[in-house]
Amino acid sequence: MNANKRKFKFEESICVDLRLLAVSFGLVVALWWVPSASSMPWSQDMVRQPSVRPQQEPRPAAPGALPTTAPRRTGSRGEAREILRNPVEASPASVERGLKLYRIHCAACHGPGGQGDGPVVARFLKPPSLTSERAKKYPDGFLYGTIRHGGPKMPSYREGLSDRERWDVVNYLRSLQGR
Questions:
Q1: What is the pLDDT of residues 28-69, one digit of tens each?
Q2: From CA 48, how far away is CA 84, in angstroms rounded?
Q3: How far apart are alpha carbons 169 and 166 in whole angstroms?
Q4: Environment class of residue 144 by beta-carbon count within 10 Å: exposed (0-12), middle (13-18) or buried (19+)?
Q5: Cα distance between residue 93 and residue 117, in whole Å
Q6: pLDDT higher than threshold 70 for residue 162
Q7: What is the pLDDT of residue 102?
Q8: pLDDT more than 90, % of the chain
Q9: Do the Cβ atoms of 147 and 157 come closer than 8 Å?
Q10: Alpha-carbon torsion 108, 109, 111, 117, what sign?
Q11: What angle do CA 108, 88, 114 make, to 5 degrees?
């Protein structure tokens, strides 16, 4: 009789375990189908965050905000032409820094002498000469704006060069032009 009691308790414990397992499985399935239970508030945070999407400009500064370190930003190279004045003295050190940056970022298209005869010209449209009479007449702000915003066939170097580096390149271009 003792063996029967043990057998009964064993079978009863198996039944309890199976019922508990079935109830647990049922709860998991029920919660899985209920949208509010499966999507907790934090599960979509990265989707709904305020962020800059690819190929989208950053959000503009709040009204009345003043820059703390950077010079005034311009929206186009035409606007830069009218507004910006070169704050960096055309010292030999600035021209030398501009030469190094020009060789890295500009010479491939514009060529070592700024004539628009760089090595990539064979595969792309010829860029304008940077030593032409027309280019000599451009204000420094326009050259800076073209470097920052790009041109019709030229990429923007907004992220590639700092403000100071752009002005150094402008100073180098002016020395290349004999100014």
A1: 777 666 655 555 666 666 667 777 777 777 777 788 776 665
A2: 38
A3: 5
A4: buried
A5: 26
A6: yes
A7: 95
A8: 34
A9: yes
A10: positive
A11: 25
pLDDT of residue 150: 87
Q: Round to whole Å and give the CA distance between 30 and 24.
A: 10
Please, are residues 176 and 113 in contact by the beta-carbon 8 Å criterion? yes
Tokens, residue 34: 């209920």
Predicted TM-score of the model (pTM): 0.59
CA distances from 56 to 36, 52, 93, 152 (A): 32, 6, 36, 19
Asked if 177 and 131 touch (Cβ cutoff 8 Å), the reply is: yes
Q: How far is CA 51 from CA 12, 70, 75, in A?
A: 58, 22, 20
Complete DSSP assignment for 128-165: PPSSSHHHHHS-HHHHHHHHHH--SSS---TTTS-HHH
pLDDT digits (tens, 9 = 90+) for 110-151: 999 999 899 988 888 888 899 999 999 999 999 999 999 888
